[in-house]
Amino acid sequence: MAYEDIRDWIAALDRAGELKRIRTEVDPILEIAEITDRVSKMPGKNNGGPAPSPGGPALLFQNIKGHPGAQVLINQFGSARRMNLALEVGKLDEVADRIRQFIDVKSPQGFLDKVKMLPMLAEMGKFFPKTVSSGPCKEVIRRDNFSLDDFPILQCWPKDAGRFVTLPCVVTRDPKTGKRNVGMYRMQVYDQRSTGMHWQRQKVGAEHYREQMRAAAAKENVGVRDPARAAVDLMARSSGGSVLADGDRPAGKMEVAVAIGTDPAITFSAIVPAPPDVEEYLIAGFLRQKPVELVKCETVDLEVPATAEIILEGHVNLDELRAEGPFGDHTGYYSLEDLYPVFHLSCITHRKDPIYSTTIVGKPPMEDGWMGKAVERIFLPLMRLTIPEIVDINLPVEGVFHNLMIVSIKKSYPGQARKVMNAVWSLGQAMFTKCILVVDEDVNVQDIGEVTLKVLNHIDPERDIQFMLGPVDSLDHASRLPNYGSKMGIDATRKWSSEGFTRPWPDEILMDEKTKALVDKKWKELGIE
User: Fold this and answer.
1) 56 within 8 A of 22, measured Cβ to Cβ
2) Which CATH number is 304's domain given?
3) Residue 432 Ramachandran class (φ > 0 left, ψ -120 to 50 alpha, else beta)
4) What is the spatial distance between Cα 248 and Cα 270, in angstroms, rounded to a whole number?
């Protein structure tokens, strides 16, 4: 059964022995982050593997300095076992298998085929979100007397610009199509009723913002040639909360809602690289095998999860940017100060005694690494739709999602590894991948030792490494320009004569099966173990 809300999820963590309640007083400024960082790097439970993986327990802080009665949940996804529990599976490949079943369905050729598809269509239909009249997130409605200071929002690292909301589900609507999007963008607290809205240029929320600018410009006939360019010009020329001159940027605003403390499937759906036309509420319904219940906001025309702990409602102005950051990020470095839209609150609704859900990012391994690994496993079938020769991928946690992807392929023709590199760089957020290693199908990409051995043995660096220029992650502090730089692909597959390699390729050293079986039988007798 799906978790009804985050409280149901906390109870499940408790039953599974995966939750630690902390009753000692702790400070939301730095102290909770330091405790959580240490816990996230503790050895986790063995779970039958060769060695324990990192990831101590989920933490529920129940004595927060300056916030009597408040509770903070953190590190809820911080281990392989908890990610499985969050998605209610024994292993993540089960979700990938369900996705594969849907995408493998062929177009019906006749009446009988259409009839056979009805059960699957009916199953898919039950995952669509449904709007209800009210929900627990409406237990307290505060249109006037509200403040972000009422919540134990963390400052995670010493040089952070302040306190940040780090696990929000940010809801926006495409002004052209009306489709909703749920993204996860950090929010720096500026004061009691405003925050930054750190949607990077390539995120869907930012695209909705640009579409709203285009619509406002057309309505006002202010002659904005390119709102996206206008935003870039503003970032280059201004600092603080200033605005462009009249006519450079349209006035107006865009409605935004933010849900904090949602059930794990909704929270996870906000980070997945979903196809643009697939709504995150539908993904959450698919993951939890039950539709997400939504309620209308009080002051904006958006729908939010009915069982969320906290809902922030408001808007961003189209003609306002403000300095945001620095922020200690998942790269292990501080992301630098930049200009982003400002989110102005108009209303807060919440449950009675709301539980504040948050996370901390920094040097891996940390909680976000396990979420990234889940994305990797679950969406491998979707990558294969476009790149069918892919056998497996690995996004090592040390590569912080976008710095390294290891790909194994079934090689069928010369130059195929380079084709795969370019195909990966064309896939949504995968465009930011700084380094791609392509290996043959017999290489276990999850075994970094094996990958290192094979790659370094197989490459001639000048021949097999290629560079290209293009968009890079906004958090890449090493790129030559913000958001633009170089990427590297390495073809570590065996080279063929049709690729210009005429030397013999040596065999890998392997013992024959007969000898291995003989030693297996004698192993106990040898008394080595």
Assistant:
1) no
2) 2.30.110.10
3) alpha
4) 33
CA separation, residue 234 to residues 52, 215, 244, 250, 372 (Å): 49, 19, 6, 13, 33
SS3 labels along 404-439 = EEEEEECCCCCCHHHHHHHHHHCCHHHHHCCEEEEE
From 37, 263, 329, 368, the catalytic residue: 329
* Strands 484-491 and 435-440, bridge-based pairing: parallel
Q: Helices then strands (H, E): number in the chain?
A: 15, 23
- Whether 7 maps to a domain, the answer reads no
Amino acid (one-letter) located at 171? V
Cβ contact 166:360 at 8 Å: yes
Round to whole Å and give the CA distance between 12 and 7: 9
| Cβ atoms 464, 492 nearer than 8 A | yes
d(CA 355, CA 267): 14
pLDDT at 340 over 70: yes
329 is a catalytic site residue? yes
Q: Which of 204, 209, 177, 194 is nearest to 314 (CA)?
A: 194
Rounded to whole angstroms, the Cα distance separating 495 from 509 reads: 18
pLDDT tier for residue 247 given thresholds of 50, 70 and 90: very low
pLDDT digits (tens, 9 = 90+) for 475-528: 888 999 988 999 999 999 999 999 999 999 999 999 999 999 999 999 999 999
Q: Which of 218, 245, 241 is nearest to 317 (CA)?
A: 241
Instruction: Encode pLDDT of 32-43 as tens digits.
Output: 999 999 999 998
Task: Output the domain CATH number for residue 439.
Answer: 3.40.1670.10
* Residue 289 and residue 435 share a domain: no
